[in-house]
Specification:
- With 265 residues, the chain is an alpha/beta fold.
- The protein has 8 helices and 11 strands.
- The chain has a single domain, classed as 4-Layer Sandwich (Purple Acid Phosphatase, chain A, domain 2).
- It has helices at 14-22, 43-56, 80-93, 124-129, 132-135, 144-152, 197-205, 253-261; strands at residues 3-6, 32-35, 59-62, 96-97, 101-103, 106-110, 165-169, 210-213, 220-224, 227-231, 248-251.
- Helix 2 runs parallel beside helix 3.
- The longest helix has 14 residues, at 43-56.
Length: 265
């Protein structure tokens, strides 16, 4: 059994959706896919994408991303908390797993989250340009910290017993030092909205060998304090320079080689 990872598939772009449909229906029948969020804000497209993956893989594990919880095109959905329920139900009906589970000797542990400004303060410019602030809708008076707290309270990092390998996964970044040094100063302005340091505290509770994340669209493999962090975002069509546009095998063969080849910064 192999384990593959991908995130930020954004099938609202036709070229991305076509890539999903182009995947072999035979090559991955014994394998597992970790899908780390940002499929589509359209429930119909999200369900179709996950169903397509589920036909190709033995199992698909999924956590929603921020785009998946947008309600800007869902006038009948009360808020993004209700959208979260709809997205999870749609994912499960399409064949995905949204809870912790052991497959053979590998434990898979999903970790929900949001950004909580633990990576930096929120500027007025970010408040104006970041689409989530217009496309998501939360209970009155909730801050982004409250949103993150709500989702992280649902996490059960010790939900499965220790197995040979543990893979945790989240959409949001659990630590800001996962961002590589080559990122320019102007792009670092979005760092406050990339994730939460509290996620790293939670993932350490399940003592993972590998943690898969998404959201940043910057493909990366880096070993820090005994955990191999992997981001394999498919990303937007124009982001070939930071996204590989391919499935990434994270277990078993590639892990040891990757862990040896990267530094902790």
């Amino acid at each position: 059994m192999r384990v593959f990872a991908i995130s930020d598939i954004h099938v609202d772009y036709d070229v991305n959706a076509r890539w999903v449909e182009s995947l072999s229906r035979a090559d991955y029948q014994d394998d597992v896919l970790v899908l780390a969020g940002d499929v589509s804000d359209s429930v119909q497209r999200l369900g179709h994408c996950i169903e397509s993956f589920a036909r190709r893989f033995r199992k698909v594990f999924f956590v929603p991303g921020n785009h998946d919880l947008w309600v800007i095109r869902d006038p009948d959905v009360a808020d993004s908390l209700r959208k979260f329920e709809i997205v999870n139900a749609t994912a499960r009906n399409a064949g995905a797993i949204t809870a912790a589970e052991v497959v053979e000797s590998v434990s898979f542990v999903p970790l929900l989250g949001w950004y909580d400004l633990s990576f930096g303060p929120l500027s007025q410019e970010l408040l104006q340009i970041w689409m989530d602030f217009r496309a998501c809708r939360w209970p009155q008076g909730w801050s982004v910290y409250d949103v993150a707290s709500h989702f992280m309270a649902m996490n059960k990092p010790r939900a499965v017993s220790r197995s040979d390998v543990t893979i945790s996964f989240s959409h949001f970044l659990p630590r800001i030092d996962l961002m590589p040094g080559f990122i320019g100063t102007s792009h670092r302005a979005i760092y406050p909205l990339l994730g939460s340091a509290r996620l790293d505290q939670q993932l350490r509770e399940c003592d993972p060998d590998i943690h898969v994340y998404g959201h940043s669209h910057v493909n990366r493999r880096v070993a820090i304090d005994g955990v191999l962090y992997v981001n394999n975002a498919f990303a937007y069509p124009h982001e070939e320079h930071i996204a590989a546009k391919a499935l990434s095998c994270i277990h078993p063969a590639e892990r040891s080689a990757s862990a040896r080849s990267v530094s902790t910064r």
